Amino acid sequence: MSILKVQNQFQHNMYIESSSTCQLVPRKPYKPRCEHYKCQPQTEIFEVDSAPNYHPTFEVILSDEAEELTLGLLNKHDEEVWASRQVFLTGYKSQEANSPQMVKT
């Protein structure tokens, strides 16, 4: 399924394009690094998927006032396995004014 089709199906979420270059070990736990924001789930086991696109693993819940955040990925020893990326959120308008924004990663 193309990225555009996924974006159309999940219009209430914001798609963030970023480098996915990292070495993950199948069946090992990972957790997002996102300071000052709530992520769910807190940890997840990485599974290899043969599909052309990976499904979102983590959700980052932001306030409507958020203008930027830093995302990264840690292993079970809190070592960075995906270098943190700064993400600017300006210009994005939530579909519902009173609901928090969700970023799928």
What is the topological layout?
Blueprint: H1 3-9, E1 29-33, E2 38-40, E3 44-45, E4 59-62, E5 68-75, E6 80-88, E7 101-104
Antiparallel strand pairs: 1-3, 1-5, 2-4, 4-7, 5-6
Molecular structure report:
Residues 94-100 have low confidence and may be disordered. The chain has a 4-stranded antiparallel beta sheet with strand order 3-1-5-6, with no helix packed on it. It is 7% helix and 33% strand. It has one domain (3-104). It is globular and about 35 Å long. It has 105 residues and is mainly beta. It is built from 1 helix and 7 strands, in the order αβββββββ.
Essential attributes:
105 residues
Shape: globular
Percent range for helical residues? under 10%
* H-E order: HEEEEEEE
Mean pLDDT: 77
- How are the strands ordered across the major sheet? 3-1-5-6
In percent, how much strand structure appears in the residues?
A: 25-35%
Number of helices: 1
- Structural class per helix/strand content? mainly beta
Low-confidence stretches: 94-100
Structural domains: how many = 1
Subcellular location: Cytoplasm, Cytosol
Main location: cytoplasm
Organism: Silurus asotus
Protein name: NACHT, LRR and PYD domains-containing protein 1b allele 2
